[in-house]
Amino acid sequence: MRIEHTVPAGLLENRRVRVLVVGAGGTGSAIVMGLPYLDQAMRAWGHSGGLDVWMMDADTVSETNCIRQPFSFSDLGLNKATVLVNRINLFWGTEWKVFPVHLDKRARINDVHPDIVIGCVDTRAARRAIEEALKTSLNRTSYWLDLGNNAASGQYVLGQPLNARNHRKAERLRTVSELYPEIVDAKAGEDPLPSCSAIEALDRQEPFINQTLATSALAMLARLFRHGKLKHHGAFFNAATGHTSAIPVDPDLWRRTRRRSLKDARNSNKH
Fold first, then answer.
1. Of 55, 233, 260, 79, which Cα lies nearest the Cα of 143?
2. How many domains does the chain have?
3. Max alpha carbon distance in the chain (Å)?
4. Considering the entire predicted model, what is its pTM?
5. Residue 247 lies in a domain
6. Which of 15, 54, 114, 228 is the right S-S partner for 7, CB 3.0 to 4.6 Å?
7. Alpha-carbon gap, residue 35 to 214, rounded angstroms
């Protein structure tokens, strides 16, 4: 049964919406470079606070990053998140901040107190770290937006993690790890390590898949912030076919999806 999701009371009141972007790679850089436009749109719609953005990543810029990501050779060796946020602050006049560390025990999500966590990570272990951080009793994050992709396809899923703010109820948006438990299962193994050459990087991944996912995910957030409602909370995109398949707000579909994912995982473990 399809229903309509309504934004939690108080999230869009006259205060800044705090966003934590975890990961400053291909997708994370596309997300954070698009957030100023969402910030400006929110102010035009009457939300005077706009966005207060933090970015978390310990990685530094390498030569291959200058091919598919918005970095130049003058950025080599610098922290990715710092480069991106400094660039945004200089251009837009914002005061966004950086957490130049990986998400672990030293850098807890609760230290930032975000309303929305946008995960742009590429390993199951990193997604598991986000999931665990959002489940703590102190956490009051309203949404977890996860984006991920492989060579020519990807997905984004907006969910409401079970915590002090989001309680167990039928209409709560299910998170990516609830719908697809294998995505946080470290036992399933990880994808290959980052490419060591520019041509290898382009062979492994379509050059604009990150931007496509980021733009679609930000458009979904824009609809949520402007209208306070959503009829879908994510989508799958295939660059090879150009096909996009939306994930509707549908509790019955969520249950079927989770059962199928768990069944597929059990069958995979048998082989």
1. 233
2. 1
3. 56
4. 0.91
5. yes
6. 228
7. 10
